[in-house]
Amino acid sequence: MKKNIILAGILLSTASAVFAQNAQMNKQQYADASKQAASRYTEDKKLCAEESNSATRMQCLRDAKAVYNDALAAAKTASAKNNQAGNQKNQPVCAECGRVIALNVSEKEGEGSALGVIAGGVAGALLGNQVGGGTGRDLATIAGAAGGAMAGHKIEQKVKSAKVWTVTVQYDNGNKQNFHFDQDPGLQSGDLVKNSGSSIVRR
Fold first, then answer.
1. E strand or H helix at 1, and its extent?
2. What is the 3-state secondary structure (H, E, C) of 151-192?
3. N or C: which end of the chain has fewer CB within 10 A?
4. Nearest-5° angle of CA 79, CA 18, CA 61?
5. Locate the Glycine zipper 2TM domain: which residues (predicted)?
6. 172 near 194, Cβ under 8 Å?
7. If we measure between CA atoms, which residue out of 77, 41, 76, 35 comes closest to residue 62?
């Protein structure tokens, strides 16, 4: 029974040692771990052979084999993960690839033209001309023309206003850039995109 306790301790320490090395294991380390597990397995079988009871001896051998198999499986898994991680690190960063991190819709005020100023000025002058008489009428006409011109300009700006979609992209290399659209680009935060000319498209 004492031998079983010793064996269990050895098997546990062997498994722990193998699992502790998993995160940094490469092909050479996998070979070393396999060799170490095989060597420990041989020692464990010798300990099991010293058991006087056949049932205990068989159970000991089964436990030793199970730990050996687990150690090999863990080593293979770690080696595969390391190879995959190494391949990903070797892949170049796509400078034109990124992810949408923000989408904002705003109102862009339109630009007023001379037409709005003139039309507003004429309408204001006509209204001002209806007020009072003599000098007062002249002053009202001038004030109406100035006010009408200003109002006409603002009205035209408002009529010509439009929505603008601003998409913020964070590239795989860490850079950020904003793209502006006159229509809904159909993108959402989290979408993967890439450059296409002076704009972006899904990838």
1. none
2. HHHHHHHHHCCEEEEEEEEEECCCCEEEEEECCCCCCCCCCE
3. N
4. 115
5. 115-156
6. no
7. 41
Tokens 């205990």 belong to which residue? 56
Question: What letter would DSSP give residue 203?
Answer: -
What phi and psi, each to the nearest 5 degrees, are found at residue 194?
-145, 160
CA distances from 198 to 96, 104, 189 (A): 11, 19, 20
DSSP string, 129-144: HTSSSHHHHHHHHHHH
pLDDT in tens, 170-197: 998 888 999 999 999 999 999 999 999 8
91 CB contacts (<8 Å, ≥6 apart)? none
Alpha-carbon gap, residue 92 to 86, rounded angstroms:
12
Please, which residues have CB within 8 angstroms of residue 22's CB and are 6 or more apart in sequence?
74, 75, 77, 78
Q: Dihedral through CA 127, CA 132, CA 135, CA 138, nearest 10?
A: 0
Per-residue model confidence as pLDDT tens digits over 20-65: 444 454 677 778 888 888 888 888 888 888 888 888 888 888 888 8
Tell me the pTM. 0.38
Amino acid at site 158? K
